[in-house]
Write a structure and sequence with these properties.
By secondary structure, the protein is an alpha+beta fold. It has one domain: Alpha-D-Glucose-1,6-Bisphosphate, Chain A, domain 4 (2-Layer Sandwich). The protein contains 5 helices and 11 strands; from the N terminus they run αββββαβββββββααα. Strands 1, 2, 3, 4, 5, 6, 7, 8, 9, 10 and 11 form an 11-stranded mixed beta sheet that branches.
Length: 220
């Protein structure tokens, strides 16, 4: 039982009221909706692991969100179960490579992951995208850590009326190691919800509210 419980917690760390599930036209199934945060899952077409989507809205700027996402060293303070996080290479505000470790309870080994991050803004819609993909062989893994080799995510920041932004996060991750897909698929809601809740709070910090990202143009 301790191993099973530990496996559930490691899955929660990787992903960022009770009701009957609601499915959308594109097969997303609503799993949790609290504090303005909605968490969906669906089966992936090319993986045994489910995809996850988190959506919430906040009155903030597009730049504030990218500033927080690019503040990699702050991740342990708000990303669920993130132990350490650092930038390995930064080419610009649009592109960087980051490294994270995820702490897991005994007896499961901690995970580490290296990802390439690319951000851009659509000139017409002003929607900002940040795409994240694994670079598992960029540098050696730490001792006693399992390297995550499959990780892909997309942040979609859609400006709405009155300065409100809809923040959407989609994720597919294979946590690697001897964790069956059915366990992963069972335990992928609470971690992303907790991360989204803390993200909403942290985005209100003055340093993010005052941030200005050169490649981002606010809608008129």
């Amino acid at each position: 039982m301790p191993i099973f419980k530990a496996l559930l917690i490691i899955i929660l760390s990787l992903s960022f009221s009770s009701f009957l599930p609601i499915k959308t036209a594109d097969n997303w199934e609503l799993k949790k909706s609290e504090n303005g945060i909605s968490i969906y899952t669906r089966y992936s077409e090319d993986s045994d692991y489910k995809e996850l989507k988190a959506i919430f809205q906040l009155k903030t700027s597009l730049s504030s969100i990218i500033a927080l996402l690019n503040d990699v060293e702050s991740y342990p303070q708000w990303v669920y179960r993130c132990e350490t996080s650092k930038v390995l290479k930064k080419s610009s505000d649009k592109q960087l490579i980051r490294y994270q470790t995820i702490v897991a309870p005994w007896p499961v080994d901690n995970r580490d992951v290296i990802v390439e991050v690319n951000s851009y803004q659509d000139e017409k819609t002003k929607i900002v995208y940040q795409k994240v993909n694994a670079l598992p062989d960029y540098s050696p893994k730490l001792k006693n850590h399992v390297r995550i080799r499959e990780f892909r995510a997309v942040w979609t920041l859609k400006p709405l009326k009155n300065g409100v932004v809809e923040i959407e996060y989609e994720l597919l991750v294979n946590p690697a190691g001897a964790i069956p897909a059915w366990i992963v698929n069972m335990a992928m809601v609470d971690g992303p919800y907790e991360t989204s809740l803390k993200m909403k709070e942290r985005l209100l910090y003055e340093k993010y509210q005052k941030a200005s990202i050169p490649f981002i143009t606010n809608p008129e």
